[in-house]
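Escalation from tier 1.

The customer reports that the assembly of three entities below gives different structure tokens on two consecutive runs. Tier 1 could not reproduce it. I'm attaching the input and our single run for tier 2 to review.
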Amino acid sequence: MPRSFLVKKYYSNKKPCYRESHLDSHAAYIPESFPRAELPPGDSSALTCYPVFSFFNHMDSLSLPPSPTTAASPPLPPSPLGPVDLSSSPSCSSGDEEEDGGRTSDPPSPETLHPMFHCMYCSKSYNSLSTLSNHQMTQHQHSTVEISARPIFHCKHCTKEYTSLGALKMHIRSHTLPCVCPTCGKAFSRPWLLRGHIRTHTGERPFSCQHCNRAFADRSNLRAHLQTHSEVKKYQCGSCSRTFSRMSLLHKHNASGCCSTH
DNA sequence: CTGGGGAGGGGGCCC
DNA sequence: AGGGCCCCCTCCCCA
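Tier 1 run:
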């Protein structure tokens, strides 16, 4: 039963990256005392190529513009191999992939998962590092290719990008929602999310509070509940030292005026 | 208005 | 690589 990662890691540096546009309003809530593990904006400086991963409109991605300078993604770092991000149109709604609201259960086709590798010395692009290496050796007399280059995989439905295909695939599930509740038809990205949802139908509450008789269907909700039994709660106001069981309550507290004069 | 429960989402880690 | 599970978080709603 005990697993190594059951050890709680409060305030660890390992924070989710809530930095996407749809979460900007949430990010505004985050106090400075809760630092975010944001990706360094210049972190890709070590990258020497920006393979393009376009999942939903893969063929569009292969229609590379003649020059990387035509890339339309402003936040990406300057590079002679500027990323040709054809998958991150701001609306993410062009074409017909939105006709089902992105909820199609069609699984991603593995053969569409092609990151692109761009030559450092010309505008040519290849779908494999070995091909690029061969090109650079034969056409530019460079015996090595930056093998350390990490592909960047872009999500077609949003602006998120990942350095591993597995992470992208996991993220894409949040668009495809392949786990469907047999009772009500609601769709979820993960099987365990579906299981948690099914508990709302069955009434199962496997997570019990050791301090009272309450039980919960969700571990996170039990954890939040346990805070109510604690005298010193997890989230503290920086001004009045009052503590709260939830971040949202601290936010409400701040918004209601305690810290407004500061 | 505040506190708390319910439901759900995302990224990361381990197997 | 994928499944399972974790932690952390948010939003909504209600007492």
